[in-house]
Structure formats: structure tokens, C-alpha cells
């Protein structure tokens, strides 16, 4: 055959094979037998082997995985991947529907309704129709680039049909069908390999393989449920149209996706899917309701990290019965003492549970739990298992009653429980090795400094042998010292030293989060980093300055101020910087000299045409800053419908109040 014919044959085979993949994995309606399929596949393989110039990135032969990667690179989401608020009771769903009806001023809302898949959220980016990147959700802003692994998933199209937009990001869930999960565990058993507790863990483990050939051997499935960033995409009117578009473009969409009307429609759907749940091919942990109209979605916008236009209605957590063998006390990172019931092992919510939290002393009393009691245990999703109630009391001898210790079980410091607080705490601070261990584990965790390999066993030894007292000490650890530890070969010592050294290069948000300041989670750390831009400014900020950051209230501000006033903490920070830890400084704000540049804005109430995110983005683009609370430093308060106390405060302080039009006019104005 001449070159053109070969090229045409390869293209035709690729298209045929992808079409058969689609019929088999998405439509569940194959046209040809497995041997016939294999024949086409082998023909394409040998054609590409003989003529490597014919190989394309979207060839189905690329679905078998390639050479192992050393690590995953980071993938930044152009639009953050948010989470959903949860509802458990019908009353919460009723309130959700009421809020939407009131905001939209309509009688009955149309909702797109879907199963809530119990898998992993994924983003797929197609550029000019070609799959160019697949990434995990990560912290919602940055995930891991797992393109090579996702290419092996047969229900993910490697390219889109003709007429694809310039850029299209499809979001959905990667999961393992129950059938494939059971088969995988049977195979694992046969080779004495690791068994997975549930399909979700199996999917997560398979997707995070550095060797995509292993992923290719695990059967994963992708269900599409949402649109991310897009360029050149024809406007859609509703979510259900987006779903139809996905189907037309060969994506797999759950057949249970549909549209219902009003609260009654939602609750009806919840019960129908609840009944059908056991018969579905995959695990779900609830259903998701989304306002169907995209214009209405925009109008409703977002609160904090979740959309106001959608909610997850969760199924009740699974429960099981077990016996309390003992009640231990665990010391957490902030010194909190938590009573934990040691249980007769029981399989619940997809895992073997041997411990369940009792939260605090008052809860133990309220539930009246004693050692020897038979109890109901509950576990849902990733949540820590908990003791719900006693089902059959045990013998209840005097020693079976739980007493909160007066001294920390780890460091023997005094235990204090302040008035009005439910939590008892060890007063030992970082003198307490349990707190030190937890602080180090937190520091090294994936979302913080991401030091791979620095796990519990190693941290235990480092602290017990007094090799490491603070996070800063990690950077001075000699490789020989590490290599001499238990279960530590030279190679792993070298890997850990390398991982520690690599973590020196980080972001300000991660660094702030890694310090383990009370009440400062990941998203607060990110807001602080964006607001202050460097560590010095943050450390010098007073309570008022801190409260200028969106979502920072008096409690968080107090925690921060207290943390930084502690000389010991300042020493740890200077130790880290001296050891070479450094962060990328946030990109400088765009130079702007308009009327909004350098001004501080507070948004309150609902604006008629702009969502809060839009308004914020526009203000920031014009060089202004948006903060969460009104103070003397505020320059403008932008007030919409149902503005509350912030508007009152602005009027009290004599601050200029703008409506949406006023804001837009100001943003247009150039000095
Ligand atoms: S929509 C802005 N739809 O739930 C809303 N999420 O708590 C974005 N999930 O991380 C999510 N099934 O992994 C949506 N039908 C569905 C879903 C779904 C499962 C997961 C998803 C996300 C989490 C949000």
C-alpha cells in the first residue's frame, strides 16, 4: 500500500475501534464479537509498529498504558472544582427548594436530578476535540495530572466528533463498577495481592498508579455530569441540554439522570433511587439536585465553596452492631482528648471498623456508653465512624464506666477543660509527643508540604528518639540517621531526604496551612496567602487587619494572632525559612489606575445581574480588593437585594454605598 492508503487505513481502523469501544463500554450494545475486535486492534497495532509516523495521541492503541512516571505533575483548574452542600433530612431539601423559589421568584422550579456517584471527581480537558489533560480534583484548585491513566479508561473518548469547540472541559466521576471490583478482588486473591475494601478505594488506588499499564488492567468507568471551562461552545439553556450534548459526544451519562419539577419531584426521585440503589451497577451515596436553567444557576451563584443552585441529598449512613472492648483516649494535633471506642471488628460503610469516635466526655455520658455494651456504629463515606447509641447494655461493672483522665495519657501534662467547652485538652502543647507527632504528620501531609513517605511509623520513631522536635528539624535530618531507623533501607532513606528537600519549594498557602494553626484550614490559608502575599505581613497583622480577609471572623483572627504571638511558633517559622523553605510569591496584582485601584470593597446582598464571584473578579481586575467585613478602612460597600447588617454598618460609618450600576460605572471610570 502506498503512504496515503496506509494513512487512510489507520484512520479508518482508529475510528472503527473507537466506535466499537463506544458501543461496548458506553452503550453496552456491542456490534461485533471480542475476537473480531481483537483482530482490528492488532491490525492497527502492527500498522503503527511498522509505520510509527502513523501513530497519533488519540489512537486506541494508546489505551494500554505507557512507561511508568516518576511522579504526577500538578494540574491547575481554570475553574475551581467546588463541592456540594449536603442535605440529610427532607426538611433541609424543603428549605433548599424554598430558598431557590424565593430567590428566583417562581412557583415551581425545574431540577436536573442525578445519582451522587461514590467515586473520584475528574476533569477532562479537550482542546480542538483532542483529550489533552485529565486531572483529579485535588484541593479544588490544583489536582494531579493523571492523563496517561485516564486514557486507559475506555468510556472516556480520546477525541470528540467533528465540530468540537476550541476548549471543552468535561467533569464527572471515575469509579469502578461493582462487578469489576469483585473481579479485581478475585484476581488479587489469586495472586495473594492486596484486597480492596470497596469499589471507591479500588478506583482511587488504580487511578493513582504511576504505572499506567497497571491502571489499564483495572477496569475503571467514567460518568460525565458537568461542564467546566469552555471556549467557543454554543450556549446551552439548561443542564439537561448539557447532559444531552455529552451523550451526543459519546460520553457515558447515568441513565438515571432526569428532570423533575418542584419539591415533590425531588423527594419522589430520592425515594425511587433509594429503592433502586442496590440494583445499580455502581455505588452511590445519595442523589444530586441542580437547578436546571443555567441562567438561574448563574443568578443564584455560589456561597463560599459550594453552589447555591445545587445540593446533595445523602442517603442515611450505614449502621452495624458491635461490642465495645474498651474506651481509649486519643490526643489530637491541638491537644484535644477524644474518647474512642475500641470495637469488635465489624464491616460497615465499605470498611472494617475497629475504632469509633465518641466525640467527647459529654457525649459518652449522654449516650451512656460503657465498656462491654453492644452498640450501633455508623459510617458514611470518608467520615470517621461513630458510636450512635447503645443497643444492649453490658454488665456495667464499676470499672466499665468511662472517666476522662486528669493527666494526658501520653505526656502526663494536666488535662484542662475550660468552662463552656465540650473538649478536654492536654496542656502540654508541643511538649506532648502525641501533639508533636500529629503536628509533624499534618505538616508533611499531601495538602500541606506534601512530603511523600513521611508517614506515621517514621514520625513515631523520629519523635520517640528525639531526632525531630519541630517541623524545622526535618530539614536538618541526616540521611544516615534515617537509614539507621527501623524498616528503613538506604534507598528509602534517600527517597525521604529527597522528598523533604523537594518540599522546600512550596506555596504560601501550603506553608500557612502546614503550620497547623487552630481554625485555619486549607481554604482560609489560601485566602490569607492571597490577601497578605507574604509571611511577614501575615505575622504582623493585627486582629482588625486579619478580619479584612474574606471568611475570617473574630474566632479565626484570634487563633492566628495567638499563634503568631507565641515565640516558640515564630522560632519554628524562622527555622523553616533558614532551612531554605521558600514560597512562590503571589502574582502581583495587575497594575490599574482606575477609580477602583487600591480601594477596599465589601459586597452584601444579591445583585441583579452579577454573581458575587463575578463582581469580585471585576473589582480585582480593576485593582481593587474585596474583603468580608465593613470597617473604617472600607472604601465602598456594594449592596444588592436583602443586604443586611453590613449595609447598616456602612451607613453608620458614612461609607459610600453603591448599587450594581454604581459599581459598574465606577469600574469603567479611569482617573
Ligand atoms: S456536581 C458545583 N454531580 O460530589 C457542583 N457532583 O460534593 C459540582 N459527585 O466532588 C459537583 N456525583 O465528586 C456533581 N452527579 C453529580 C455527582 C457529584 C458525585 C461528587 C463530586 C464532587 C462531590 C461534591
Low-confidence stretches: 587-591
Structural class call reads alpha+beta
Radius of gyration, rounded? 28 Å
State the total count of DSSP E strands. Answer: 26
Number of helical regions: 25
Q: Alpha-carbon distance between the termini?
A: 70 Å
Give the full name of the CATH homologous superfamily of the largest domain: DNA ligase/mRNA capping enzyme
The percent of residues in helical segments reads: 25-40%
Describe the model.
- This protein is of the alpha+beta class.
- It has six domains: 3-64, Helix hairpin bin (Helix Hairpins, Orthogonal Bundle), CATH 1.10.287.610; 86-314, D-amino Acid Aminotransferase, Chain A, domain 1; 318-409, OB fold (Dihydrolipoamide Acetyltransferase, E2P) (Beta Barrel), CATH 2.40.50.140; 429-503, DNA polymerase, domain 1 (Orthogonal Bundle); 507-584, DNA polymerase, domain 1 (Orthogonal Bundle), CATH 1.10.150.20; 600-668, Rossmann fold (3-Layer(aba) Sandwich), CATH 3.40.50.10190.
- Helices cover 37% and strands 22% of the residues.
- The protein is built from 25 helices and 26 strands.
- Strands 14, 15, 16, 17, 18, 19 and 20 form a seven-stranded antiparallel β-sheet that branches. Strands 2-13-10-3-9 form a five-stranded mixed β-sheet.
- Helix 24 (645-653) links the parallel strand 25 (636-639) and strand 26.
- The radius of gyration is 28 Å and the shape is globular.
- Mean pLDDT is 90; it is low at 587-591.
- Residues 82-84, 114, 116-117, 121, 137, 173, 225-226, 288, 307, 310, 312 line the site of 2-(butylsulfanyl)adenosine.
Amino acid at each position: 500500500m502506498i503512504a496515503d492508503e496506509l494513512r487512510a487505513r489507520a484512520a479508518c481502523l482508529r475510528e472503527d475501534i473507537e466506535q466499537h469501544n463506544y458501543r461496548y463500554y458506553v452503550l453496552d450494545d456491542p456490534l461485533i464479537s471480542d475476537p473480531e475486535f481483537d483482530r482490528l486492534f492488532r491490525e492497527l497495532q502492527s500498522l503503527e509498529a511498522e509505520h510509527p509516523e502513523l501513530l497519533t495521541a488519540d489512537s486506541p492503541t494508546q489505551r494500554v498504558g505507557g512507561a511508568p512516571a516518576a511522579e504526577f505533575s500538578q494540574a491547575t483548574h481554570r475553574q475551581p472544582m467546588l463541592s456540594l452542600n449536603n442535605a440529610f433530612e427532607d426538611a433541609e431539601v424543603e428549605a433548599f427548594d424554598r430558598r431557590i423559589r424565593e430567590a428566583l421568584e417562581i412557583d415551581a422550579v425545574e431540577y436536573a436530578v442525578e445519582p451522587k456517584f461514590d467515586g473520584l471527581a475528574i476533569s477532562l480537558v479537550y482542546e480542538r476535540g483532542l483529550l489533552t489533560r485529565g486531572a483529579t480534583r485535588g484541593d479544588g484548585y490544583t489536582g494531579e495530572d493523571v492523563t496517561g491513566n485516564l486514557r486507559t479508561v475506555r468510556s472516556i473518548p480520546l477525541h470528540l466528533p467533528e465540530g468540537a469547540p476550541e476548549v471543552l472541559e468535561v467533569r464527572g466521576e471515575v469509579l469502578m463498577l461493582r462487578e469489576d471490583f469483585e473481579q479485581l478482588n478475585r484476581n488479587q486473591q489469586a495472586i495473594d495481592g492486596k484486597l480492596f475494601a470497596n469499589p471507591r478505594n479500588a478506583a482511587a488506588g488504580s487511578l493513582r498508579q504511576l504505572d499506567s499499564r497497571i491502571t489499564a488492567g483495572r477496569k475503571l468507568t467514567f460518568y460525565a455530569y458537568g461542564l467546566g471551562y469552555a471556549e467557543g461552545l454554543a450556549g446551552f439553556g439548561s443542564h439537561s441540554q448539557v447532559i444531552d450534548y455529552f451523550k451526543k459526544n459519546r460520553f457515558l451519562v447515568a441513565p438515571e439522570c432526569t428532570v423533575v419539577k418542584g419539591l415533590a419531584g425531588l423527594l419522589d426521585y430520592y425515594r425511587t433511587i433509594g429503592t433502586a440503589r442496590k440494583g445499580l451497577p455502581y455505588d452511590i451515596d445519595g442523589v444530586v439536585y441542580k437547578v436546571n436553567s443555567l441562567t438561574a444557576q448563574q443568578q443564584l451563584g455560589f456561597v463560599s465553596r459550594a453552589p447555591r443552585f445545587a445540593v446533595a441529598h445523602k442517603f442515611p449512613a450505614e449502621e452495624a452492631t458491635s461490642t465495645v472492648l474498651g474506651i481509649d483516649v486519643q490526643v489530637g494535633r491541638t491537644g484535644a482528648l477524644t474518647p474512642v471506642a475500641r470495637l469488635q471488628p465489624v464491616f460497615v460503610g465499605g470498611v472494617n471498623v475497629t475504632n469509633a469516635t465518641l466525640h467527647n466526655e459529654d457525649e459518652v455520658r449522654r449516650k451512656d456508653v460503657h465498656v462491654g455494651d453492644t452498640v450501633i456504629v455508623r459510617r458514611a463515606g470518608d467520615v470517621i465512624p461513630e458510636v450512635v447509641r447503645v443497643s444492649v447494655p453490658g454488665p456495667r461493672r464499676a470499672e466499665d464506666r468511662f472517666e476522662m483522665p486528669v493527666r494526658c495519657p501520653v505526656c502526663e501534662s494536666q488535662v484542662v477543660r475550660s468552662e463552656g467547652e465540650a473538649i478536654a485538652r492536654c496542656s502540654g502543647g508541643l511538649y506532648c509527643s502525641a501533639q508533636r507527632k500529629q503536628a509533624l504528620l499534618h505538616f508533611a501531609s499531601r495538602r500541606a508540604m506534601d512530603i511523600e513517605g513521611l508517614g506515621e511509623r517514621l514520625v513515631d520513631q523520629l519523635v520517640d528518639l528525639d531526632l525531630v522536635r519541630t517541623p524545622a528539624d526535618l530539614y536538618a535530618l541526616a540521611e544516615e540517621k534515617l537509614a539507621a531507623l527501623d524498616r528503613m533501607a538506604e534507598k528509602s532513606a534517600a527517597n525521604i531526604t529527597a522528598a523533604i528537600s523537594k518540599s522546600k519549594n512550596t506555596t504560601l498557602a501550603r506553608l500557612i496551612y502546614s503550620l497547623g494553626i487552630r481554625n485555619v484550614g486549607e481554604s482560609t490559608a489560601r485566602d490569607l496567602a492571597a490577601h497578605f502575599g507574604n509571611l511577614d505581613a501575615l505575622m504582623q497583622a493585627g486582629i482588625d487587619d486579619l478580619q479584612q480577609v474574606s471568611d475570617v471572623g473574630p474566632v479565626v483572627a484570634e487563633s492566628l494572632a495567638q499563634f503568631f504571638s507565641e515565640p516558640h511558633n515564630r522560632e519554628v517559622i524562622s527555622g523553616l525559612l533558614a532551612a531554605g523553605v521558600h514560597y512562590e510569591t503571589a502574582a502581583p496584582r495587575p497594575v490599574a489606575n482606575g477609580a477602583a485601584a487600591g480601594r477596599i470593597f465589601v459586597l452584601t446582598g444579591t445583585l441583579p445581574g452579577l454573581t458575587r464571584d463575578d463582581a469580585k473578579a471585576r473589582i480585582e481586575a480593576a485593582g481593587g480588593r474585596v474583603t468580608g467585613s465593613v470597617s473604617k478602612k472600607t472604601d465602598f460597600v456594594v449592596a444588592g437585594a436583602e443586604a443586611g447588617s453590613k449595609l447598616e454598618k456602612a451607613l453608620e460609618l458614612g461609607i459610600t454605598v453603591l448599587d450594581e450600576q454604581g459599581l459598574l460605572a465606577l469600574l469603567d471610570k479611569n482617573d
